[in-house]
Amino acid sequence: MNSLVPVIAERFSKHFPGKPLLVVSPGRVNLIGEHTDYNEGFVLPGATDKVVVFAVAHRADGLCHFVSRDFDQEYRCELGQFHRSPLHWPDYLQGVLDQFLKAGQRLGGISCVFGGDIPIGAGMSSSAAIEGGLAFALNSLFGLKLDSLDLVKLAQKAENEFVGVRCGIMDQFINIFGQAKTVLKIDCRSLEFEHVPFEREDLRVVVSDTLVRRELASSEYNVRRGQCEAGVQALRAHDPSIRSLRDVTLDLLRDHRSEVDPVVYRRCEYVVRENIRVAEGCAALLRNDFAVFGGLMNMSHAGLRDDYEVSSVELNALVDAARRVPGVLGSRMMGAGFGGCTISLVEAGAVPEFETRVSRDYEAETGRAPKIHVVRIEAGTHAVDLG
Ligand code: GLA
């Protein structure tokens, strides 16, 4: 069991009476398929052993009382009286409660302590872990009988509507549906998914944090969405059956190049190619060809850097440093971009050298040390019992 569970349970007992429901909610990595989810394309994420733990219990007075262990802050609100908070973190929780009420679900007040070890704002989806974890807890605590997909959609809507980020469905989906030792190939249109085995004793998934933070809500993410939509609009003039970039082939895009704004064209080409890379990557994993998979990760990074333009000096520095280390199969920026983390696939024996050399090179180039995490692929959100 995750070692944070007793810590959060203990903290709960300092604030509140009774025995809480304990829920473990993971962060995620995404192996490949970046900025494809909101284009109804394909992604390949896995849930991690970096988690947020919740301790949640009913209360009779209709109040929602939250304690963040990590920020050492508290927030109280009346059920249904939700307001955006300058503390920011309560918005992810209020957003979930708000969606449950809007969906007509009957809730009561709750006492909630939560905390974890997912680096915050780093592109490992600490926000989806908060949303998914609370959604799961509410469903169980109030006996609501929502299914897993309902929880995913409620959690995503919380982020879209209350927090105000037009994120796709990947993060909330993997948070709920993740399984140990497998990554999920998710079709973000049909929401069908496939478990792809991802386990090699001799390889490690390494997440390197630039420690540069850029709020997702702060514009560029939504700008990219708009550019993809503009591309779809232009192409739809030729084929009304096109609903998203998912329906666009490279040939079709090239045929209409002159009619699409050049920047929009590059955004679209990246997305179409990235979807192809997800398919090729899954095929490579199924035949245990991690070398080919690593090469696809490298190509994904090049596209994100040059065509989608969501990378940054710091992310590029980390990726370049990683690729200079022997035993690194592939490395790319991960998540929305501009700051946050890279993901690298590294031979187990090469991890110590990776840590030393990537830290040294990154510091030489940017003046600060990165934070490096070796992560395991673990289960999605689940309840645990301390016994
Ligand atoms: C963020 C969003 C996801 C996805 C990625 C980019 O993590 O929350 O929905 O769009 O960026 O792949």
How is the topology of this model organized?
Elements: H1 4-15, E1 21-30, E2 42-43, E3 45-59, E4 63-68, E5 73-78, H2 89-102, E6 109-116, H3 126-141, H4 148-163, H5 170-177, E7 182-187, E8 193-197, E9 203-209, H6 220-236, H7 250-255, H8 262-286, H9 290-306, H10 313-323, E10 328-333, E11 341-347, H11 351-366, E12 371-375, E13 382-384
Parallel strand pairs: 4-6
Antiparallel strand pairs: 1-3, 1-13, 2-7, 3-6, 4-5, 7-8, 9-11, 9-12, 10-11
Helix pairs in contact: 2-3, 2-4, 3-4, 3-5, 4-5, 6-8, 8-9, 10-11
The structure holds alpha-D-galactopyranose.
Task: List the defining traits of the structure above.
about 375 residues, alpha+beta, Ribosomal Protein S5, domain 2, Alpha-Beta Plaits, 2 domains, 6-stranded mixed sheet, 4-stranded antiparallel sheet, 11 helices, 13 strands, about 40% helix, binds alpha-D-galactopyranose
Q: How many individual β-strands?
A: 13
What structural class is derived from the secondary structure elements? Answer: alpha+beta
SS summary, helix count: 11
Report the C-alpha radius of gyration, rounded: 21 Å
Distance between the termini: 12 Å
Helix percent band: 40-55%
Main sheet: which strands, in order across? 5-4-6-3-1-13
CATH class value of the largest domain: Alpha Beta
**CATH fold-level assignment of the largest domain:** Ribosomal Protein S5, domain 2
Percent range for β-strand residues: 15-25%
The name of the CATH architecture of the largest domain is: 2-Layer Sandwich
Give average pLDDT, whole number.
96
What ligands can be seen in this structure? alpha-D-galactopyranose
Q: Low-confidence stretches at least 5 residues in length (pLDDT < 50)?
A: none
Biggest sheet features: 6 strands, mixed
Number of domains: 2
- Order of SSEs: HEEEEEHEHHHEEEHHHHHEEHEE
Shape: globular
